[in-house]
Amino acid sequence: MRTKIAPILNLVEENENLKPLTNRRPVASLPFACRYRLVDFPFSSLSSIEAPSAALFISGSGHSLYDHIRSGATWGLESSVGGGVFTHSHINLKAELEDPQYQGNYYDDHYHYVSRSHAEYVMIMGSNMLSNIRLDSLLRFHEKKDSDATVIYKKIKRSEVREDSIHSALIMSEKDNDKIEGIRPVTDTTDPNDSLLLNMEMMILSKDAFLNYLFKAKKENLDVSVKHIITYCHGSEHNIYGYEYTGYLKVIEDIGSYYQANMDMLNEDNFNSLFYRSNPVLTKLKNSAPTYYGKHAEINNAQFANDCEVYGKVENSLVFRKVTIAEDAHIEDSIIMQDSCIEEDVHLKYVILDKHVYVKRGAKLEGTPDEPIVVAKDSVIYEDGTIEEGE
Amino acid sequence: MKTETVAMILAGGQGSRLGKLTKHIAKPAVPFGGNYRIIDFALSNCANSGMNDVGVVTQYQPLILNNHVGNGSSWGLNRHNGEATILQPYSSMEGEKFFKGTAHAVFQNIDFIDKKNPKYVMILSGDHIYKMDYQKMLDYHKEQEATLTVGVMPVPWEDASRFGVMNTDKTDRIIEFQEKPENPKSNLASMGIYIFNWDRLKKYLVDNQAKDRQLTDFGHHVIPAYLRNNEAIFAYSFEGYWKDVGTIESLWSANMEFLDPEHELDIRDRNWRVYSNNPNTTPQFLTESAKVTDSMITDGCYISGEVVHSIISHNVKIGKNSSIKDSFVMPNAVIGENVKIEKAIIGEGAQIHDGTEIIGSDDNIEVVGYDEEVGGYTDEN
């Protein structure tokens, strides 16, 4: 299939409520489900429609993202014919927009990428709406509707996102249910049981519509975001439609939702929805040995990546690569990231260990389902439960 | 940088003693240890030893093997300083070039080796499970100023008659070669690993082509010819784990040994990693009803049953109330509910239907072939 899409991944995403996990990484490179990072999901969707290239806009240095994405070969983005990952780092939307010196770059980078690609459409995506989108059916919908812009949404309960969520909901036309009539903050809805049509901040639009928006955005100092483009389309009489997504979705906006998204994978329906019913989810391959479970290991409803050694008891938990869990250790309802080491007689319940945490013999930590204890990267947890934080 | 050594991995053998496991794939491509194929060990040894120019000679049922090796990128062998190249028989003006033996396979690929113009050629087999630093052997070869160095391994005297054994003098120079001798004079078994000075070997092979064309096999023909001509042949002793997994029983027992976390092969050693062409798949999911002890499980598995002392390769599904014991299950097999498997090897993609029992014993390991279906409902009504 010759692809018609120029993808733009807007990875400058709100991360304050995800600290300390986002102290040194953007939301896009948050580890997920034993062996993935959140950015694998949009990349895998793009891979399934054979998008040859992608433009990334990231804040900060993006070290952990570069390390993960490399040449983009995992998702078929490394071709020497029209391929490539075009990364634009140190993007800090608001500050830069206020300083005219940098404005030029922000808009010009978008312009150059889109105008030079041979695509007919631009696809805008982020990484904090954890989902697995079939872009081929989105594209069919978009073309059938003869749409200028199509936004992906999902019907959710108000309670599924934060009370003070920064996300927005779509208002659909009463005459044509597919047509978007407006946009409003989700905080406008107050009853937690009310449903709303969450703007998943992913959209496809024609190259022309995109470039037109870009000129206006440059003039008026607007972000290149789905929210703003929806408003722009209404002002300019572009046709704009909503495409309903019905698969698994979790909005990753704080530690609670991050924890819940991982735990959701222990439910087979969710796991299958995200990993088996749609595009295969591709991640950077690492060389690994199978995981060894010891003679006295006790496992109950848990997921593991390769390269672990498990001698203790693990229940309702997710364990990433290269983790060692000693005999008589007991892990419940927890997320243990790569390279962590757990000694004998440790008990962890409702805990998230970031990468490379060392838990000493006898240590006990217990959080709650709503507030799991998060231990930062490279920390050491001592027998009395004190945590020496990593640098 | 000029290529000093070209490594030729002979991976064309059928491995007929593996029965239905090598019916459709070559022995070096047979899965091993949950996440590997047999040839990964030789390829990883090349990569870890800095032997970056590798020819992989394939012939018998090469599809999966060629696909697995690809351009060598899984082993880092696709760089500017070396590459992995798949060498298959081809036809030419001189006729078809099928390989009639180990030395003949090298003769047929003279052009490939000459293009690299190396000083040494290392001959390896793609059939063995071991970790070995080939660079050390090459250093030894240079030190001895040998024209041929043979990798040997001390075996128990009672087993020596099953191997080709090398008799050496006090300086480790090989003075006699006995193929599967009744009364072995030495317990140094040939590992099928050779380092030749390329110009010398090439001369033997080319001259031979003009004469009686008898030099088709390294063990049977080339080494005796070298001995007759009083070449400097030395034995390089390797000590460590080395296993030929040429039979069902040895493939099974090698996997059972591999399972032991104290095994000397130490698959988790970060300084000598065994690389493979890993699939992109999901985490391993052990459900509420799973019970897994003393076993290796690989990514992509879904386990609802009991697994004891077994290796389960990637993307295997095991249903409820099934029990797998002392077995090696190859990738992509699907095992239903209420299945009982003991002392067995289950082939890639096999389907074991609900309620089936597959019970082997130590001297008769049960084998289910690739994509084979066992059990299932019958239309009794």
Automatic annotation (TrEMBL), chain A:
SUPFAM superfamilies: Nucleotide-diphospho-sugar transferases, Trimeric LpxA-like enzymes. It comes from Alkalibacterium subtropicum. The lineage of its organism: Bacteria, Bacillati, Bacillota, Bacilli, Lactobacillales. Residues 17-158 form the Nucleotidyl transferase domain. This is Glucose-1-phosphate adenylyltransferase. The keyword Metal-binding does not apply. GO terms for biological process: glycogen biosynthetic process. Belongs to the bacterial/plant glucose-1-phosphate adenylyltransferase family. It comes from the Bacteria.
UniProtKB/TrEMBL annotation, chain B:
Pfam families: Hexapep_GlmU (PF24894), NTP_transferase (PF00483). One of its GO terms (molecular function) is ATP binding. Keywords: ATP-binding, Carbohydrate metabolism, Glycogen biosynthesis, Glycogen metabolism, Nucleotide-binding, Nucleotidyltransferase, Transferase. Residues 289-364 form the Glucose-1-phosphate adenylyltransferase/Bifunctional protein GlmU-like C-terminal hexapeptide domain. It catalyses: alpha-D-glucose 1-phosphate + ATP + H(+) = ADP-alpha-D-glucose + diphosphate. InterPro entries: ADP-Glc_PPase (IPR011831), ADP_Glu_pyroP_CS (IPR005836), GlgC_bac (IPR023049), GlmU/GlgC-like_hexapep (IPR056818), NTP_transferase_dom (IPR005835), Nucleotide-diphossugar_trans (IPR029044), Trimer_LpxA-like_sf (IPR011004). Transmembrane segments: none annotated. Residues 7-259 form the Nucleotidyl transferase domain. It comes from the Bacteria. It is an enzyme of class 2 (transferase). GO terms for biological process: glycogen biosynthetic process. Its EC number is 2.7.7.27. CDD domains: ADP_Glucose_PP (cd02508), LbH_G1P_AT_C (cd04651). Involved in the biosynthesis of ADP-glucose, a building block required for the elongation reactions to produce glycogen. Catalyzes the reaction between ATP and alpha-D-glucose 1-phosphate (G1P) to produce pyrophosphate and ADP-Glc. Homotetramer. NCBIfam families: glgC, PRK05293.1. Belongs to the bacterial/plant glucose-1-phosphate adenylyltransferase family. This is Glucose-1-phosphate adenylyltransferase. The lineage of its organism: Bacteria, Bacillati, Bacillota, Bacilli, Lactobacillales. The gene is glgC.
